[in-house]
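Sanity check

After download, print the first record. It should look like this:
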Amino acid sequence: MKRLFRGGIVVSGEECKKADVLIEDEKIVKVEEKIEDPADEVLDVTGKYLFPGFIDGHTHMALEVSGTITADDFDTGTRAELAGGTTCIVDFATQNKGESLALALENWHKKADGKAHCDYAFHLAISDWNPDISSELEQIVAGGIHSFKLYTTYDAMIVDDKSIYEILARLKELGGIAGIHCENKGIIDARLEEVIREKGDRKNVSDYPGTRPACAEAEAVNRILNIARCVDTPVIIVHLSSEEGYKEVVRAREAGQTVYVETCPQYLVMDESFYELKDNEGKKYMIAPPLRKVSDQDVLWEALKTDKIQTIATDHCSFTTAQKDMGKDDFSKTPCGMPGAEERPALVFHFGVNEERIRMEQMCRFLAENPAKLYHLYPKKGVIAPGSDADIVVWNAETNWSLSAATQQSASDYCPLEGLQLKGRAERVYLRGMLAAQNGEIIEEYKGKYLKAIK
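Expected structure tokens:
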């Protein structure tokens, strides 16, 4: 089937240009100023922006963590992603200690295959390192996994510095790359103990951000970048939250290192005042790293404006209110994470493009083009060009709407920014040529396909 998008403004990482787009079945076949080819369906998108389908490079669907499992699995989580304009996610397949990497991937395929509404790829989070895993990595990379994740905190996931060095060296040999969760576990543990000594308990969520200070992020960023410098390999700093952490990145880049940086909407539009909400409602905003100061937001926006940050992902890791209440007597037992899959593009457009912090082309880079390139999905994904998948977001810059738990697709029973009025929305979302979502409603279900990294 041929569809012709007529009169729209095609957005790429380089420019916005008025052009028609012709797709046939699952692929884009022409992008030209005026296309006269016959089509089975002609869509008048005059005045609308046509983005390549957005890519969320950091999600946690169906993740077992903190004695529970995330509220969103691949069914509800990818519903939320697709509703907002995201046509591909890269989720973290997690190796539990004692498991092979192959088993970790098998477990995640069982969670995802046949249950996803948008396309999906995997990173692989490594928690256990030994000669057998090192040997297995070659087969894993050859099988289509390009990116991996390492943690500098969490008992179940932390890897020591020697292992980090060896993993980075092995990935360099194989052509892979690692994204790193950077926080100093020792500082966090010590600060948690201090709260007990000083307050007698850990019930007050307002004490939470002090247990994971910006300096704990900065220390880990500094350490990771020094290890990467010894290996002489690029790394990705994921969910960067603070000015202190960013300064470490700047310092490394000035010394000649290649460092990629991801941040998230929550660090751009929310701040630590949410932890002061009455009745300990701040537990709903407990994420790791925590929300920071408004001054940190300013630094991150400026870094985006100057293209010093490469991607904006969600770190979508959702829980219900009941799950958040697991920490009602001790906030350290609260599962950390928030929903954010559906609202990410609209938040970036509203607070970024509309408020002139970033340009439309940059939004395309941060949400589509850069993650596609970084995670080896380009040019299949991330661009509106002949030969690419027909993942197209028809964006109406004039739509006014509001965020609400009552209308969101996520299985979480709360919306972190309930009632927020936004301008700009994904009006129609095409997944490989199919109209898959419209104004937040899913039209085509369970059409997501697994993607291997392009070599």
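If your output differs, re-run the checksum step. Summary of this record's structure: The mean pLDDT is 98.
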